[in-house]
Specification:
The protein is built from nine helices and twelve strands. It is of the alpha/beta class. It folds into two domains: 133 residues, Response regulator (Rossmann fold); 150 residues, Rossmann fold (3-Layer(aba) Sandwich). Helix 1 links the parallel strand 2 and strand 3. Helix 4 packs antiparallel against helix 9 and helix 6 crosses helix 7.
């Protein structure tokens, strides 16, 4: 575990004010930042966690929170770190409990005056009113990126490399596949999971195998996949973050997650004294500003016009509610 009580690595000075917010005690002055801790099982550079971290830094910069964090926290150590932050006076704790669900909820029950906003594959529990959950429901943008991939593949063979087959990954893959099939219903998919959230070498090797098996576009749910695509001279579709600048000849499009609507909603509820157990997943939807399709960058004008017209049409329909991307949390399989 690596713990940061300052953000020298990010060249960002934290405030030293202590929050006097008591959960459920009513409104607080906007000038009084909420003492907030982030607990992450991977480095903050990792795609998914980086979006939470960036949103927290932005909230701190505008004075809403006072933020510290720990990264590379093991699942077996997660409960202890939660307790330490709660004992230190933090009033909002954010993070991801996918591998420590039961333990995290048990600790949260011991600190009813601390608000928890945690990434989770499970639902909120009214019996634990201080524990809200979220997930990156960015299937809308994933679907749009699939349309682009379906229009760019020449072999009709797309490789997909994921971390674990859990709902938050599965739904994005299914949405991507559905989008690709809008352009070509005969596309075949190679699907594999590497059993890690952060193992670029393993993701890269898995991607190499898919390329050997005929894939000419890769869905890069994990770091390392785009590196394989770059080395072999094929295309990739990004996920959660925009890496087009790093892979200008490789990454065609990316589905971006914006955590700001989720965190900002929680902060507003805390400031109003109304924070309670809830599912914040909806704030990742496109019509809430929680996801978008990244700019195409160097691929602007290179994607077939028919695909871009469909992307524009579907995006407008998603935002208006006229079209809904199916949420399928089942494990996807190769076809």
């Amino acid at each position: 575990m690596t713990k940061f009580n300052n953000l020298n690595r990010r060249h960002f000075l934290m405030t030293t004010a202590t929050s006097a917010l008591i959960l459920g005690a009513g409104p607080v002055f906007a000038a009084e930042p909420i003492k907030t801790a982030g607990i992450y099982t991977v480095p903050v550079e990792q795609q998914w966690v980086s979006r939470i971290h960036i949103a927290a830094l932005a909230a701190q910069e505008r004075g809403d929170i006072e933020y510290t964090f720990s990264e590379n926290v093991s699942n077996t150590d997660y409960a202890r770190v939660i307790r330490e932050y709660a004992e230190a006076g933090n009033k909002l704790i954010i993070g991801e409990v996918f591998g420590a669900e039961a333990e995290a909820r048990e600790v949260a029950a011991e600190y009813p005056d601390v608000a928890f906003l945690m990434g989770s594959s499970f639902k909120e529990d009214a019996a634990l009113p201080n524990f809200a959950i979220f997930d990156n429901y960015i299937q809308d943008a994933s679907y749009l990126s699939g349309i682009i991939a379906g229009s760019m593949t020449e072999t009709g063979n797309i490789g997909m490399v994921g971390g674990f087959p859990i709902p938050e990954v599965n739904r994005l893959m299914h949405a991507f596949m559905a989008g690709a099939k809008e352009m070509n219903p005969d596309i075949k998919f190679q699907v594999s999971f590497i059993g890690s959230w952060f193992d670029p070498p393993k993701a890269k090797e898995t991607a190499f195998a898919m390329i050997e098996n005929g894939a000419d576009i890769l869905y890069a749910e994990r770091f390392g996949v785009s590196d394989a695509a770059k080395e072999k001279g094929i295309l990739a579709i990004g996920n959660v973050i925009d890496t087009q600048a790093e892979y200008p000849d490789t990454v065609v499009a990316s589905a971006i997650w914006h955590f700001e609507p989720t965190l900002d909603k929680a902060i507003a509820e805390l400031q109003a004294g109304t924070f309670t157990a809830a599912d914040y997943g909806v704030y990742s939807f496109m019509n809430q500003g929680g996801t978008s399709l990244a700019p195409l960058g160097t691929f602007e004008g290179k994607v077939p016009a028919a695909a871009m017209e469909l992307v524009k049409q579907r995006e407008a329909e998603i935002k208006s509610g006229a079209f809904t991307v199916t949420i399928n949390d089942d494990e996807p399989t190769s076809s």
